[in-house]
Amino acid sequence: MGALVWGVALSVTGLPVLAKILAKLKLLYTDIGKTAMSAALANEISSWVGLTVMISLGNNARKAPWALMSTIGFIVFCVFVITPSIIWTIRRTLKEGYYSEETICVILTSVLACGLATDLFGTNSMIGAFVFGLMIPNGLLGPRFLEVLKGFVEDVLMPVFFTASGFRTNFGTLTSYSSWFLVAAVIAVACLSKVVSTLVVAFFHGMPLREGVALGVLMNTKGILALIAINTGRDRALLEDKAFTVIFIAILVMTMATQPIMSLLYKPKKSFLPNKHRAIQRLKQDAELRILACVHEAHSVAGIVNLLEASNPSRRSPIIVFSLHLIQLTGHTTALLIVHGPNQTTSQSDQGQVNHQILKAFEQFEEEHGGVLVHPLTAMSPYTTMHEDICNIAEDKRVTLIILPYHKRQTIHNNMEELNHAYKDVNDNVLVNSPCSVGILVDRGFGKSAAVAEDSGAESIERHISMLFIGGADDREALCYARRMAGHPNVTLTVVRFVESKTEVDLRLSDLIEDETGKVSMEAMDAQVEIRLDESFISEFRHRTAGDKSIMYFEKAVRNGAETIETIKSMCQGFDLFIVGRGMGMSSPLTAGIDEWSEGSELGAIGNLLVASEFSSTVSILVVQQFAGARAAGEGLTNPWPSESHFEPFAKHRDMGNVY
């Protein structure tokens, strides 16, 4: 029977430990990570079966059939009797979204009872507790149950178990070179057998050699089940001290080596999947707009929800919203992505209540608008890697626009108060690494206006939006988004374009020509391309919106940054929202000197100017940055609009009076 213990302990893959390693390597949501987790799950289930058989045969070979049949009968009893009873008990005792302490006590007592039952049947108490845990429906009691037990289990029971396993390890049995050679041989054979068997399966499924080797290395991860197997074998005299020590060392080395080997062996290339919808400017007519709305705290939800509502969702041109609640994790806790299902309960902790408020706000938004579909998500990770989760989700969900809250909020004295400087770091990192366009919302009451209208009994509220156009890819993307919003029956759009005279443009371009050779520099060529794109874009925009009374277009002639500032100051009143481009990579005399108002690169020159206290404290601001890949690929050089009828679906929504 000792051979069975060896087989179970060295063949099992620890699913929880593997999840932590994959999360640290940022591979948890990649193809290889998903494959590894699925394989580890199947492996761990079969290992529990092997552990049950091992314990049954180890106790008494003659009574093994009775022990196995009893355990199987117990599992059937749990499925058809205990599970329905748990569901009935939980739903009956549920009061205002909270579970009573009596329910928790009943559940904990049931765990002990199930463990005692399987121990009496001749297997092991851990098997009964494990089976009972599987019977608890996901989402009904899980969060509350974890909240009660997590600290005690992680801080008391687990350290005691690991310490006890360490005390049972007798290094005195490994005194000769042959003993340590046996340890090395066991590790080599166990690792190579996993890698080779995984490579064979990978070959038949057409996986690349590199991924097959990496998957084999990941399968060598061991967890608590391996320790349970060798401790159980030691308790039943199936293992001697030397064998226990050899397997213990092998488990430790194999698990410790997995992460550093994977770090060297498998470094996934960061490449974006083919996706033409990474920028709003490239969307075709009637195409759905996929938005990733990120939220740190509950107070920023209202502004983002109202921005989404003003984005003109309809059944013909729907908006798919992935609401992402960002939660900081500290210490060594593993990063985690939670996909919320319908009617899923949350924890009773303060963070759980914030999450519940955010979920309810987006659920209500979805219920009130037929052209909206919301997928609620929660990402738990440290601030240093939070941007990676945001970008990975945006890539996986084929998002067109990421909306982030500004890292400051307005106080009652109309000053901007910093919430958390780490929020700014997250925003900056997303702006640099984003796989799509990004918008940063500075909410100065855009979320309150709807609440005021609701309290006054008004069915809808008029929103006056202004788009400030100076030039460049970011401004063109911002204007595309503003045009979509203008299709809403209760939204009016004022586009203000700041222009300089043709003479000044020619002089500026001539200054960029190299004096020595007379050749046009790359900077001058890029500037000329951007000017042509802006002219073509604005010309097409004016032509297609000429008959739309909800859109007003003005041009303001300015010569420098000072005149731009004065013009913006004079028009700060009367609008609910300013939409501007971030303007990165653009050099224009119209913004010269405005950078002095800047407190960082998060909002760009115009965005930081509008946030300053010298300007209106009641107008919200949306700063848009177009996906860098769209600019690098030169998209829109010949046709700034993706189709001949880019505006028609939005205009028709207004004409038909359809508001969803």
Fold and architecture overview:
The protein is α/β, with parallel strands linked by helices and 660 residues long. The protein folds into two domains: 2-265, Na+/H+ antiporter like fold, CATH 1.20.1530.20; 280-341 and 358-410 and 418-656, Rossmann fold, CATH 3.40.50.12370. It is built from 23 helices and 13 strands. It has helices spanning 2-11, 15-24, 31-59, 64-93, 101-121, 125-135, 142-167, 177-204, 209-218, 224-235, 241-265, 301-309, 350-368, 383-396, 421-433, 448-456, 473-486, 502-511, 522-544, 561-570, 604-611, 628-632, 648-656; strands spanning 289-295, 319-328, 336-339, 372-381, 401-405, 408-410, 416-418, 437-442, 463-469, 491-499, 551-557, 577-581, 620-625. The chain has an eleven-stranded mixed beta sheet, sandwiched between helices. A two-stranded antiparallel sheet has the order 6-7. The relative contact order is 0.09. Residues 634-640 and 643-660 have low confidence and may be disordered.
